[in-house]
Amino acid sequence: MRLISINVSLPRAVSVHGKEIETGIFKIPVSGPVVVNKLNLQGDGQADLSVHGGPDKAVYLYPWENILHWKKVLQRDDLGPGSFGENLTVEGLAEKEVPIGDEFAIGTARFVVTQPRLPCFKLALALETPSITKTFLESGRTGFYLRVLHEGTLQARDPVYPLPSREPEKVTVAEFVELYRCKRATRDQIRRILSLAALPRSWKEWLTSNGRLQAEETGD
């Protein structure tokens, strides 16, 4: 596992259907050591802090293998590091293999996986593909957000070192996304999700309120 690219950008104004909005989704690869702060990377920023950024979404990671997938599916040779608005393009961290709560070190910084990325219209804007938000979520290739446990510095080509997880249960990012999509889960799945210390409280409340995540009668 290794860091392929570090991508940052500050918010800028763009026109969408005649309306001006600010977005930080247009990430650009940068070279040299980059400082990791509690809320973002040096040189990076988020526009709408009500849905982006904050400690639980400080850094967005996207697997390089996913970019190769979309290059083929969308027939887009122009896609590369940063195309999906990610801060870190990493090789070897697939959603099906990475549980929420996993911890790892890159450079001198340390991170924990908190939640998947749910796409919004800004992804469609960045890729100039209106249908991508639905396809992106259905694919399960969402990437995931990181909380910064220890600030530090990192740079492209740094290895990614897995660290012992402090979670007693394992729920992969892919499993979580599928439960979110289908809105049904076994009682055991619900129990495991609610036990995750790394998963933000807002997610737990959303998933279990108003019957959004219903328990299947399976005898669990």
Number of helical regions:
6
Number of domains: 2
Q: Report the radius of gyration as a whole number of Å.
A: 17 Å
* Side-by-side strand order of the widest sheet: 4-1-7-6-10-9-8-12
Low-confidence stretches: none
CATH fold title of the largest domain: M1 Pyruvate Kinase, Domain 3
Structural class determined from secondary elements: alpha+beta
Offer a few descriptive terms.
220 residues; alpha+beta; M1 Pyruvate Kinase, Domain 3; two-stranded antiparallel ribbon; 6 helices; 23% helix; 28% strand
Task: Tell me the layout of helices and strands.
Blueprint: E1 2-8, E2 12-16, E3 19-23, E4 28-30, E5 34-36, E6 59-63, H1 64-73, E7 88-91, E8 103-106, E9 109-116, H2 121-127, H3 132-139, E10 144-150, E11 152-154, E12 160-163, H4 173-182, E13 184-185, H5 187-194, H6 201-208, E14 214-215
Characterise the protein shown here:
This protein folds into 2 domains: 2-164, PK beta-barrel domain-like (M1 Pyruvate Kinase, Domain 3); 174-215, no CATH class. The N and C termini lie far apart (36 Å). A hairpin with a 2-residue loop joins strand 8 and strand 9. It has an 8-stranded mixed sheet. The protein has 220 residues and is of the alpha+beta class. The radius of gyration is 17 Å and the shape is globular. The protein contains 6 helices and 14 strands. The longest helix is centred in the first third of the chain and has 10 residues, at 64-73. The chain has helices at 64-73, 121-127, 132-139, 173-182, 187-194, 201-208, and strands spanning 2-8, 12-16, 19-23, 28-30, 34-36, 59-63, 88-91, 103-106, 109-116, 144-150, 152-154, 160-163, 184-185, 214-215.
